Amino acid sequence: MLLFVLLAVLIVGIAFGISRCIGSQNDSSNATGRSNQSQSVNDKSTNADKASVLLTNTSMQRIPDDDGVFSFTLSQNASAPVLSDTHREAIEEAYDSITQFDASAGFLFIDLKTGSGIGCNVDEPIYAASAVKGLYACYLAEGQVDAGLAEWSEELSEDIAYSFMDENGEYLNDNVSEYSLESLVEDSVVRSENDAYRILRMHFDSDEYLDWLDNAGVDGSDWRFTDWWTNYSAREAAALWLHARNYVSGTSPSASKLKDWLGKTDVSMIRNVLMGAGESDCMLISKAGWNADMEEVRFNALGDAGIVSKDGKDYLIVVLSSFPGEDDTFYLAEDLIAALWSARTDLAS
After folding, report:
1. Rounded to an integer, what distance in angstroms lies between the CA atom of residue 228 and that of residue 122?
2. Are 241 and 305 in contact (CB under 8 A)?
3. Cross-strand bridge partners of residue 246
């Protein structure tokens, strides 16, 4: 009897060791140096037959990081999706194009229903430029107006921001000294008006903003988020956009205002991709960021982020890069967004 027990323990131990060795193969890289990996970041449950998606602003911390393109799942009891060769090659080609000339880039694309996604270089902070304006507007709607600390109709003076405003900008040269909170937020989001945003930051940066950032899933004490234009990673941007998506899905009048503004931004690379693909039935909220500065290259930015709703599913897209962002370089971000959007079929199961 003792011999039988020892043999059983030995067999189980060998099987477990083989299982561990097989599982570690996901860490290998192919000849091109790309990760080519699929990673499951799920919690085990007693219900092994049913996947449940764990999506909160902090669940973004469960996404792995890799310099190459990888797939993952945030769903319990499910395996990470496998990208088709065609989709992987298209994503890698678009990523290589946007990272030429020593530019950095990171992205996340997540099917928020299945919890499956695709990512690359998700932890490198990259200059956000105007993309941050949409998230700051969410703070103002939720953390100020909804909290009873401000009203959309209240008038705000531009005097407080004079020293930061554009000398030739319309705000300094329109002979108007006060603007409603509502008009400033709409201008900063829809038209990406820098001076409107500067006035808002001078009036509303406070402990309430730090608290809102903490609740939204990032470290409010980190200088990167309190800096007006923000350097953040794709992972951090995704956490903030998941929070914004959950907020605009609510019933607050402020939520409906914000959803409307984010749905009609003048510039959206994501919208350009959807329209080019004939996806007129999609709903979109987004805020792009772009800047080209040949002298201060650390302020170069080209990217977009937001939520696409189609056929009862929401998809979260974040694309960040330090490539100089101008009208004639938008196509680089759009090519990457298009490749990710085409790969959504790989995330469906």
Report:
1. 21
2. yes
3. none
Of the candidates 134, 137, 147, which has an alpha carbon nearest to the alpha carbon of residue 208? 147
Sequence-ordered strand ranges (E) for 158-300: 178-180, 231-232, 283-291
Q: Are 272 and 338 in contact (CB under 8 A)?
A: no
For the chain, the first-to-last Cα distance in angstroms comes to 47
For residue range 17-60, what is the model confidence (pLDDT) as tens digits?
333 232 333 333 333 333 444 443 333 333 333 345 557 766 77
Helices (H) and strands (E) in the chain, counts: 11, 11
The pair of structure tokens assigned to 30 is: 């192919």
pLDDT in tens, 73-129: 988 778 899 999 999 999 999 999 999 999 999 999 999 999 999 999 999 999 999
**Are 247 and 270 within 8 A, CB to CB?**
no
Q: Which H or E element spans position 111?
A: strand 105-111
Place of tokens 């990208």: 83
Q: Which residue, chain included where needed, has tokens 């079929």?
A: 345
CA 229 to chain centre: 15
CB distance 291 to 300 below 8 Å: yes
3-state helix vs strand vs coil in the chain, percent to 5: 45, 15, 35
Is residue 195 a contact partner of residue 161, using CB atoms and an 8 Å limit? yes
Distance CA 167, CA 162 (A): 9
Looking at residue 85, its amino acid is: D
